[in-house]
């Protein structure tokens, strides 16, 4: 959600901040998340492990890098290629945000697979996971829109989010590895 | 008999009081038109003979544009007078770009003052253009175009073409303040590139909060020197190239004394406002596309 908010900021200089720009951003995020859920669920069928979850998180973080480096030239080129502000912003939102959001979407269903031990507790675990992820989104949205934009640049906030995601991914890789062997 | 006088007096007081209330009501706001657009509600209020366009229900603050219904040429608000002061720096612009239409006061007057000048007005909201035409006597023509676009998007597009402007006026506001992406260093650089050499920029602002400091350093970063005209609003007037001195300004202003009479003000009254004094903290952070929490900075009074 924090990235989505900042996405509005990134697109505003090129496409304005009209309702259709927000519409384009939200559409792409929802589309990427939905396909990510599907892919994450499918991927969890094949030897699921915390390590692999860590890999997904790290990839999600790494795919933000082009956004940090090339957002402006990409937006300029896209706005020339597609002058219509609606489809121009839709294509831009797709190019910039689809891949990282897709990988982020894979995390939740994959984590459900790792958390659920039996059918009886599956609802509770899924509920907890939804709670953590949606509550985190709410907190990230509030923190970003009320306070972080007063302190940091857009790219600095994106970088921080990226590093947090990558750090969690790496922790999952290293910390969980020996425990898996014990199991 | 004396006793019966008291109710009479009371009655008289009540009647006079009621009449007074009726008179006072004539000064009250009357909603003439309301129209919901993609961006906002565009409202037109009449208060006596003065008609104003507003983007919020509480029209006493945040008036976008006003017109005197009996004397449509008389300027009701002070900021258009200061914006017209840009003509003291360049009295004969051949092409003008105005970002933000509002009631169309400034393009309407510029049209009269400069009959041969090409005037492009960029307005994001078609409802504002409709209301300006219907309620504020704004007309388009061959030489006065209204382009429906976001101001920043238009400037970026125009830079790819060949058109450049002698005078650019920034006057875009939403219900709160200037939209954040029209306050940044990058935007001002783009506007600067859209001016011909020697071209003039006039920008209408009114922040009195912390944002004033940030806004000022951002303009100073891009344009170095500018005139800082302050009344209820602050209007920034600058030029690519050296600014005119006081004597040059006075000479040019004299040319407009007769013309501005029609609009109900004295051109020379605007002259003392042309100061280059820097009354802000030079260490404030410059607003950029990466850092533009403009409306949040505007909250603290």
Features:
heterodimer; A: 183 residues; mainly alpha; globular; B: 301 residues; alpha/beta; Rossmann fold; seven-stranded mixed sheet; four-stranded antiparallel sheet; 35% helix
Structure description:
Chain A is an all-alpha fold. Chain A has one domain (2-177). Helix content of chain A is 89%, strand content 0%. Chain A is built from seven helices and no strands. Chain A has helices spanning 2-15, 19-43, 50-62, 65-81, 85-115, 119-151, 154-182. In chain A, helix 1 (2-15) packs antiparallel against helix 5 and helix 4 packs antiparallel against helix 5. The longest helix of chain A is centred in the C-terminal third of the chain and has 33 residues, at 119-151. The radius of gyration of chain A is 18 Å and the shape is globular. Mean pLDDT of chain A is 89; it is low at 178-183. Chain B has 301 residues and is α/β, with parallel strands linked by helices. Chain B has a single domain, classed as Rossmann fold (3-Layer(aba) Sandwich), CATH 3.40.50. Helix content of chain B is 35%, strand content 23%. Chain B is built from ten helices and eleven strands. Chain B has helices spanning 2-26, 79-84, 105-113, 126-135, 151-160, 185-193, 211-223, 246-261, 267-270, 294-297, and strands at residues 29-36, 41-47, 50-54, 63-68, 95-99, 118-123, 144-148, 165-170, 195-205, 227-230, 234-239. The longest helix of chain B has 25 residues, at 2-26. Chain B is globular. The A-B interface holds A 9, 12-19, 79-80, 83, 85, 146, 149-150, 152-156 and B 38-39, 124, 150, 152-153, 156-157, 160, 179-181, 184, 186-187, 288-293, 296-297.
Question: How are the elements arranged and paired?
Answer:
The complex is a heterodimer of chains A (183) and B (301).
Chain A: H1 2-15, H2 19-43, H3 50-62, H4 65-81, H5 85-115, H6 119-151, H7 154-182
Chain B: H1 2-26, E1 29-36, E2 41-47, E3 50-54, E4 63-68, H2 79-84, E5 95-99, H3 105-113, E6 118-123, H4 126-135, E7 144-148, H5 151-160, E8 165-170, H6 185-193, E9 195-205, H7 211-223, E10 227-230, E11 234-239, H8 246-261, H9 267-270, H10 294-297
Parallel strand pairs in B: 5-6, 5-8, 6-7, 8-9
Antiparallel strand pairs in B: 1-2, 2-3, 3-4, 9-11, 10-11
Helix pairs in contact in B: 5-6, 6-7
């Amino acid at each position: 959600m924090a990235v989505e908010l900042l996405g509005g900021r990134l697109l505003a200089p090129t496409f304005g901040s009209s309702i259709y720009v927000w519409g384009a951003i939200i559409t792409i995020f929802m589309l990427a998340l939905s396909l990510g859920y599907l892919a994450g669920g499918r991927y969890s069928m094949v030897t699921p492990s915390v390590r692999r979850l860590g890999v997904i998180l790290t990839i999600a973080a790494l795919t933000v890098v082009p956004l940090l480096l090339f957002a402006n030239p990409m937006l300029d080129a896209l706005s020339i290629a597609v002058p219509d502000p609606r489809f121009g912003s839709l294509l831009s939102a797709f190019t910039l945000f689809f891949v990282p959001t897709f990988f982020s979407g894979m995390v939740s269903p994959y984590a459900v697979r790792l958390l659920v031990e039996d059918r009886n507790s599956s609802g509770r675990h899924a509920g907890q996971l939804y709670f953590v992820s949606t509550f985190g989104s709410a907190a990230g949205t509030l923190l970003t829109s009320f306070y972080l934009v007063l302190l940091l640049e857009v790219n600095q906030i994106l970088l921080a989010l990226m590093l947090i995601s990558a750090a969690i991914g790496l922790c999952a890789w290293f910390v969980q590895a020996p425990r898996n062997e014990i199991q | 008999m004396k006793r019966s006088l008291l109710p009479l007096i009371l009655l008289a007081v009540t009647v006079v009081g009621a009449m007074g209330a009726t008179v006072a009501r004539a000064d009250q706001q009357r909603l003439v038109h309301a129209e919901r657009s993609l961006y906002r509600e565009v409202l037109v209020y009449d208060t006596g003979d003065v008609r104003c366009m507003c983007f919020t229900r509480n029209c006493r603050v945040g008036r976008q544009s006003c017109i005197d219904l009996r004397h449509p040429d008389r300027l009701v608000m002070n900021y258009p007078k200061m914006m017209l002061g840009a003509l003291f720096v360049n009295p004969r612009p051949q092409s003008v770009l105005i970002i933000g239409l509002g009631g169309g006061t400034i393009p309407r007057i510029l049209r009269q003052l400069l009959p041969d000048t090409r005037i492009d007005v960029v307005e994001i909201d078609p409802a504002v253009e409709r209301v300006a035409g219907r309620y504020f006597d704004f007309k388009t023509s061959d030489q006065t175009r209204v382009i429906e676009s976001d101001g920043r998007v238009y400037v970026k597009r125009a830079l790819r073409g060949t058109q450049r402007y002698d005078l650019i006026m920034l006057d875009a506001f939403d219900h709160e303040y200037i939209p954040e992406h029209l306050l940044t260093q990058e935007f001002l650089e783009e506007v600067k590139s859209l001016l011909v050499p020697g071209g003039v920029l006039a920008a209408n602002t009114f922040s009195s909060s912390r944002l004033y400091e940030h806004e000022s350093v951002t303009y100073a970063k891009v344009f170095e020197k500018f005139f800082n005209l302050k009344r209820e609003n602050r209007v920034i007037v600058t030029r690519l190239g050296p600014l005119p001195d006081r004597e040059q300004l006075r000479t040019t202003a004299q040319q407009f004394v007769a013309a501005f009479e029609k609009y109900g003000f004295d051109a020379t009254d605007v002259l003392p406002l042309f100061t280059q004094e820097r009354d802000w903290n030079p260490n404030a952070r410059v607003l950029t596309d990466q850092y533009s929490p403009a409306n949040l900075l505007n909250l603290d009074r």
